[in-house]
Amino acid sequence: MANAxxxxxxTPAGYVFPALTGRVxxxxxxxxxxxRRRLSNRLVDVEKQSKHQFVVxxxxxxxxxxxxxxxxxxxxxxxxxxxxxNDGVLLIVAPNERKVRIEVGxxxxxxxxxxxxxxxxxNEILPRxxxxxxxEGIAAGSEAIIREITQ
Length: 151
What we know:
With 151 residues, the chain is an alpha/beta fold. It has 4 helices and 4 strands; from the N terminus they run βαβαββαα.
């Protein structure tokens, strides 16, 4: 990852997270290699432009945890965003639990409010997921997030 990522913290007890291997961590295997590469390159470009770090992660399981708690702990453990600005964003997809969340660091909450994140999930991501089109939903949701955080 780029310099914008601070040193990852320890994993909280009871949580199992995939390894942070890049801007796209597809532990659930929803994306093809070319889809991962294309999205990763897009997220690198966004970070160069805005300095805000945005990571997409799919997980096989939340391990029985609430998605909001999982997202906060994952973001802290991975150290997403610049520590002094707390300006990271995670798009988390847990297909087996049928859950999606956009976790936004406090430093970006004015650019991407909870209401806007909810609209992105409802309007861009879920309709595609309901059709079984996970890659399209992830791509559409990612582009909508990028529009919000780069304005």
